[in-house]
Structures are given as structure tokens and as C-alpha cells.
Design goal:
The chain contains one helix and 14 strands. The chain is mainly beta and 209 residues long. It is globular.
Amino acid sequence: GGQSAALVCLADERPRYASEALVEYGGARRPAFYALQEAWAPLAVYAALPDGLFARAGEVIRLPIWLLCGEGENRAFTVTASCFGPDGALLSTVSFPAFAQGSVPAGALSVHLPGASCALTVRVTATDEAGGPIARSDSILCVFSEGDAPLGALLHPPRAALRVSDGALVNEGGAAALAVSAGGRYGALLPGERLALSEAEAGFEALNA
């Protein structure tokens, strides 16, 4: 009792999750469920963040970008990696072609970090030849100034203004919403973005909303 584990049934087409850390007693899915669902998808993209998930303010860092795919996904993609500030402003972006075959490095994103402590959003997407989104991941990178705790930016991030309207979760404020769990997804919701919600999953959770 008290221990948590993510159990995978290899006979299933997709992983099956069985853990109190992922699914509540009543059946509601926790944010970690959706995070693992994206990480274990047949095709996934992500940025390899620094150890500890933080970096010092004012530095220029290089984030390796990875593309991972299962069997039967041998297709050409365009991978785009971007870094956004706490207000959703684009700090850096890069795109490159990639061919999905196993686990391969797709490129790297260089970011000149802000000079003050804050939480940044690193987003990586893969699109097909028609421009349709295939995979996406959002990660939080903490920036810390001298004298601040490395992860201190997560204690009091700017509050995001999220509202459910017309079957969608909308970020109506000027701050990026972090660690949003809604609509079967886990990630960020930048200012002005909206995420469709189903009737079965109309609720949401977020770190700063």
C-alpha cells in the first residue's frame, strides 16, 4: 500500500495505466495520466531539458530535440521547437525536417534566457507533409537569478485567466497557463489559445489558474 506504479499491458495496442497516481478511485484521470499518454504515444517529440529542469538567468542554452516513433511510422515530418516567456511571448523558435524511424535526434533549439527568475514554456510539435499536427509536447523550464531557488519560479507564477466558453477552455489573460490538464491533453495554454473540451471531460486543472 502507498506505492504507485504505471502498469503497461504489452498485449494491448496502447499502454494501459493502472495506478492511484494516474487515475483516482472514482475513475477521474489525473494530470499525470495525460502526460504519460503523450509520452507513450506511437509518435512523440520532446526537448531534452537541463538536469533539474532549470537554468541560470541570462545564459544561452541549447536544448536537444528528439523524435521518437514506433513501428509503422516511417514518414517525413517537420519538427518545430519554440520557447515562450511567462506572457506567451516567443523567445526562440526553429524548424527542421525529420524522418521518423526509432528514436532520433531531430535538431536543437538555442534560447537566450531572460535576466530574471521565471517559468518558460518549451513546446515541440511534429507536423505531417500537409501541415497537420501529429504530436506535441509542452515542458516547463525554470529560470533562476542569483539568490533565488532554482525552481522558485513555480511557487508564484503569474496567474492565468482560464475560462470554459462554448465547449472550449480559453486563456483570456496575459499569462501562460502552466501544467494544464484538460480535454485529454497535458501541457501549456498560451494567451489567446483555446482547447476543445468534450462533455465527458469538461473540467480542467492548471498550476496557475
